[in-house]
Amino acid sequence: MNFPDLGEFRFISKLLEGVHPLKKESPSHRSWLSAGDDCAIFDGWLVTKDLSVENTHFRLDWSSPEQAVEKHIVSNVSDISSMGGRPRIALFGLCLNKSWSEETCNRIAAAVAQGFARRGITLIGGDTVAGDVGMFSTTLLGTTDGEETLLRSGAKPGDRVYVGGTLGKSDAGLWLLMNHPEESSRFQRLVDYHLAPRICEDMGVLLVKNGVRGACMDISDGLSSELNHLALSSGVSMEIDEKKLPIDSDVLEMCEYFGLSPLKFALNGGEEYELLFTGNLTKSILDEKFPNQDEIFEIGSVYDGSGVYLNKPDGGRIILNAQAWSHI
Questions:
Q1: At 270, phi and psi to the nearest 5?
Q2: Which superfamily is assigned to 152-319 in CATH?
Q3: b/e string for 220-237 if b means 16 or more Cβ within 10 A?
Q4: What is residue 141's three-state secondary structure?
Q5: What is the tens place of the pLDDT at every residue in 246-273?
Q6: Does 7-144 match 152-319 in CATH topology?
Q7: Could you tell me whether strands 85-97 and 122-131 are parallel, antiparallel, or unpaired per DSSP bridges?
Q8: Class for domain 7-144, per CATH?
Q9: By C-alpha distance, which of 281, 299, 303 is closest to 240?
Q10: Residue 49: what are its φ and ψ, rounded to 5°?
């Protein structure tokens, strides 16, 4: 298609370069779910939407345009994964900051196009405007391989609680950027994770494929908050063992260096995007079915009742309250 030689049309043309072909495939089964989970479901399509606002979710004095776009895409993909699905189709909205250079705008366009295409996600439309602050907005649609969908309400007494991946990385990276940017290179992996998280994007599909039928959601607002979400949605209580929390080794090193508590980063750090789920995975299942099984950690158990509790190493137990980040 030939676009008129106008700035907006040139930009849209760049966004659509190399777009992944649209597959004419409907969901394999029909189901419906209203708001309240990581995704809604209509007629079998998993649907989620996330916004990333400049100076709130990303800063271009900290990150490259490519990192900012990648972080935004991961935040959407993790929602689809947490329901046991694969991302398929995207609608993308973009507000270009009027102060961004032409190079920055072109790099963002290329990152959006490439980020969706390499995941097999077809960009089918959207909108582009300019304003005083930059913003990315994606509506992402996905499908499951079968009839099973992971929900926040799926936890049952007797389940165990797991996280995929180590904890605290993103929040530790943010703390470095805000408090000791001069030390960023010492803990570059944490900074890089905050700016552009790397997760196992197929984890939800693997869970469903291998028989997990518990509750699941991604860790976007912090582990303490997401645990309370799962417990409340499922009508159960949970007990988490502090000594089992897989605090990332670099987070531990950073906290020792600066004299900080690693538990805060592990429990309350947001933008992790790893999956939190319940089920019963034996060691044999992990060894046989999960290629990245070393990145799945059991952290607690599900019981009758309500609330979330943290079992301390000294034998005590405290209520683990939600410490969610407020977006408004």
A1: -95, -175
A2: PurM-like C-terminal domain (3.90.650.10)
A3: bbbbbbbbbbbbebbebb
A4: strand
A5: 999 999 999 999 999 999 999 999 999 9
A6: no
A7: parallel
A8: alpha beta
A9: 299
A10: -145, 135
Half-sphere exposure (Cβ direction) of 180: Cα atoms closer than 13 Å? 15
Question: If residue 314 lies in a helix (H) or strand (E), which one and from where to where?
Answer: none
Please report which confidence band the pLDDT of residue 292 belongs to, taking 50, 70 and 90 as the band edges. low
β-strand partners of 319: 309
Q: Which two tokens stand for residue 328?
A: 């408004």
pLDDT at 11: 76
SS3 186: helix
Kindly tell me the burial class for residue 264, based on how many C-beta atoms sit within 10 Å of its own C-beta (0-12, 13-18, 19 or more).
middle
The predicted pLDDT at position 3 comes to 44
Beta strands in the chain (DSSP E): 40-42, 45-53, 85-97, 122-131, 135-144, 160-164, 216-218, 237-241, 275-279, 296-303, 307-311, 317-319
Contact of 214 with 275, CB cutoff 8 Å: no
Residue type, 143: T
Sequence ranges of the domains in the chain: 7-144, 152-319
Asked if residue 82 lies in contact with residue 217, where contact means CB atoms within 8 angstroms, the answer is yes
Query: Which residues, at least 6 apart from 125, have a Cβ–Cβ distance to it below 8 Å?
Result: 91, 92
- Is the Cβ–Cβ distance between 208 and 145 less than 8 Å? yes
Q: How far apart are CA 93 and CA 59, in angstroms?
A: 18
Residues of the chain by 3-state class (helix, strand, coil), percent to 5: 35, 25, 35
* Structure-token match 């900074």, residue found: 191
| String of DSSP letters for 16-84 | TTTPPPPP----SS---B-SSSSSEEETTEEEEEEEEEBTTTB-TTTS-HHHHHHHHHHHHHHHHHHTT
Q: Whose CA is closest to 208, among 127, 263, 277?
A: 277
pTM for the full model? 0.93
| 257: β partners | none
